[in-house]
Amino acid sequence: MSNDERFQNITLRPVIKLQNDLLIEVFRNYIRKHKNAFYELNVEQGLNYIENAINKDIKFRNSMKGMIIGQFTIEEYMSYIENSSALNKRMMSIVKQRLQDNIMLFSNPACLAS
Predict the structure, then answer these.
(1) Where does the pLDDT of residue 114 fall: very low under 50, low under 70, confident under 90, or very high at 90 and above?
(2) How far apart are CA 42 and CA 54, in angstroms?
(3) Which of 28, 70, 80, 83 is most deeply buried (CB count within 10 A of its CB)?
(4) 7-14 — which CB contacts under 8 Å span 24+ positions?
């Protein structure tokens, strides 16, 4: 196992799992801030919306990274900065997959009220 894989499995996955509820709520807020356009999409379009939010909205991406990096110990952070570029890709890939796996949690609240 490479050092990046080890860091992913020992640090990234547990931290992202710990932060899962927060990441979901942050994405709900992202939907609201973008005029609820997400709610007009079918599932496939919704999956693409999540991917684009993670990959193309740099401010949102950096916010997500900060929530995860903020949970690192000093030792984990020191390991992270040795290869942060590759680890950021792994981190955002895991976050994207988690959000996509939980797409049903992002149902339109207006539909739930009726």
Answers:
(1) very low
(2) 18
(3) 80
(4) 7/76, 7/79, 7/80, 7/87, 8/87, 8/90, 8/94, 11/72, 11/76, 11/79, 11/80, 12/68, 12/87, 12/90, 12/91, 12/94, 13/94
C-alpha–C-alpha distance, residues 81 and 72, integer Å: 11
Place 57 in a pLDDT band, splitting at 50, 70 and 90. Answer: very high
Rg (CA), the chain: 15
Q: What are the φ and ψ backbone dihedral angles of 71, each rounded to 5 degrees?
A: -95, -5
Domains of the chain, by residue range, sit at 3-103
Q: Tell me what the mean pLDDT of segment 40-45 comes to.
A: 95
| DSSP tag of 73 | -
Distance (Å, whole) CA 1 – CA 15: 20
Residue 52 tokens read as 């684009």
pTM exceeds 0.85 for this model: yes
104 touches 29 (CB < 8 A): no
